[in-house]
Specification:
The protein has five helices and no strands. It is an all-alpha fold. It has one domain. It is elongated. The two termini are about 30 Å apart.
Length: about 120
């Protein structure tokens, strides 16, 4: 859908045709980065983390981020996987938010161009 918008975009604006499409390029890059790197890596780490939780016999507590047992909670492998998972999940969320913000920016620019061309 973003590719169609880039190809069919006629927002020439005062800044030139390519500058008007910058939000669309940012959306495309953030979606592709999320699709081909962040989501697969996050999923891979999540499954590794689930395996460690099963080995430690924890992770079945609903709403709990850490096991109650300090020995299990301080397992170095679990801590490392949780940290990596949190980082990748955060970046994935940031990429989704960037796509949303730049989509709103592009949409507001299009609506502004339409309103500018119409006389009231």
């Amino acid at each position: 859908m973003v590719l169609v918008a880039i190809v069919t975009s006629k927002a020439d604006g005062d800044d030139g045709p390519h500058r008007a499409r910058i939000p669309l390029y940012v959306i495309l890059i953030s979606i592709l980065a999320n699709l081909f790197y962040l989501e697969p890596e996050t999923t891979k780490i999540m499954f590794k983390r689930h395996a460690v939780e099963r080995r430690l016999e924890t992770g079945h507590e609903v709403g709990q981020l850490k096991p109650k047992d300090p020995k299990k909670a301080n397992d170095p492998e679990l801590k490392a996987l949780s940290r990596t998972f949190g980082m990748l999940h955060g970046f994935s969320t940031l990429m989704n938010l960037a796509a949303l913000v730049f989509g709103c920016l592009w949409l507001s620019r299009c609506v502004g161009a339409i309103l500018k061309d119409t006389t009231i």
